Amino acid sequence: MALWLALLAGPGLAFEPLWVARYEETSGGFALAIDRLGNTYVAGGRPWSGTSSVTIMYDPVGRQVWATRCTLPNLEWVAIGLDRAGNVYAAGTSYDGIQHIEVCDYVVVKYRPTGEQVWLARYSHSPDTFYSWDGAAAGYVDSAGNVYVTGRSLDNDSTWYDCATVKFDSSGARQWVARWDAGECRDDMGRAITADPQGNVYVAGIACAGPGYYLTLKYSPAGDLLWDRVRVGGAYAKSVAVDRAGNVYSFGNGADSVGGYAGYALLKYDSAGQELWARYYIGPGGQDAGYSMVLDSSANAYATGLSDGLGTRWDICTIKWDSAGNRLWVARYDRSTWGDYGVDLATDGKYVYTVGLCTDDSSPTGGSMCFVTCDADSGAILWAAPLRDPGATSASASAVAIGPDGCAHATGWCYDSTTQVATYLTLKYTCTGTGVSLEPSVTARLQLQVVPNPLSDRATVRYQAPMPGWARITSVDVAGRTVATLFNGTAAGNEEVTWRPAGLAAGVYFIRLETATARISRRVILTQDN
Question: Are 150 and 259 found together in one domain?
């Protein structure tokens, strides 16, 4: 596997994704969605590239199914989602950098499950063709194919920016536009958006970008403002979620008092907008920033971002609060003296997957995609690892989601400053990081080969144990479950066994060789059901 794979936590384990897919582009992956079959959808982009950003579909084993571009140039996607029929929706901003340098619009595109573009919808508040700014920051797609977009929109009458939220239906028709203005402030913006099963819409962002106030909004299914909450002392909200009872959680960067140190801020409101509690976290260095937050099925909140450590600069810091606002644990991860930060996270209630960026010790401008996996109950870091293509000078992970088989899918970008080539980098990995090697000095003497690979109905497993003793060979699925034991006994020298994957579905598996002192494995692909 032509990647820089490195272990940073968990003695003797190595990060080995189930698959890694690349797509060379002038941009990188920023948004991610997984369907019920385990297919992965990625969208991203960098504006001013002169071409539209690409949207890509990968099958469950990482093979590209299709890649398609919108018909608009200079397009940056911020969100991607699917309806129950498998149609794909992407939301973002289109920049006109060719003729009118200060013109941009909200854009939503619908694609069929096979990748063909169905429709394109835009939102522009101003008729001014020379200076009009409507920039999308976040989007959400519900199961019926309704698309909700929020961001920052210029009001040309006042020359101030409003928080503008727009709903499009599954046919691309604009259903409503809701603009929120703090009044005397010059800059309001939506940064995150979601909807509940009843169709109520929730927005979190910033009011009055100068001093920076914490903004949370709730709209009815028809787009009527039900309540707005502006909290003095906060800087901005970047993530919003709603639990089954209709309680609203707004998370971002804030302080518990005006002029206080900035830190993580998590606010909880009931369905009527009554504040239930507010919680803050400020690390030992005193300057933190919250980036992303999710809820599990019990309404526990998990959040990540960056936290200033003592002598470590910024660390990736992931925190868990219960539904009553009690902080249950804090997991801090420091790799580089230049700083690391978490960008996104996902949880299934058992594990917490955090992704972001780890900088290089040698340079603050270089970095790698960073992956940190914690136990959801205790907060213990199970493993952490960076990932970057050879030759790339910088990289970062942007989004993570959990598929139907319990594995994590992540996307991001790698960039080579010499060639100025960027790459979408998308991968799938397990809760264990698929760690396969224990002691490098011992495993270097172990040998394991599976032929053919990929296979259809059988394969020969050839192995060599350097010393006589106990050995076991098993086949393992992506969740770490043993599906067959091929050998369990005394082995020495060169041996081989036959693997017949009877009763197994097509997909990715691992053949694992264990001895008393070491363990290695090889990834295999079964191409058909048996």
Answer: yes
* Global confidence as pTM: 0.79
Domains held by the chain: number: 3
- Mean pLDDT of all residues in 202-224: 89
Pair (427, 321) in one structural domain: yes
Task: Round to whole Å and give the CA distance between 303 and 415.
Answer: 27
Handedness of CA 127, 129, 134, 139 (dihedral sign): positive
Q: Residue 167: give its domain's CATH number.
A: 2.120.10.30
d(CA 145, CA 165): 16
Q: Is omega for the bond preceding 440 within 30 degrees of 0, making it cis?
A: no
Q: Which residues pair with 249 in a beta bridge?
A: 241, 268
Does residue 212 sit within a domain? yes
Count how many residues are written for the chain.
530
Q: What is the CATH number of the domain that holds 476?
A: 2.60.40.1930
Q: Is-contact 475 483, C-beta < 8 A?
A: yes
Residues 378 and 416 in one domain: yes
Instruction: Give the integer Cα–Cα distance in Å for 231 and 248.
Output: 15
How far is residue 485's CA from residue 510's CA, in Å, rounded to a whole number?
Answer: 12
Residue among 318, 445, 422, 328 at smallest CA distance from 370: 318
Cα 347–chain centre separation: 11
Mean per-residue pLDDT of the chain = 84
Domain region containing 145: 125-275
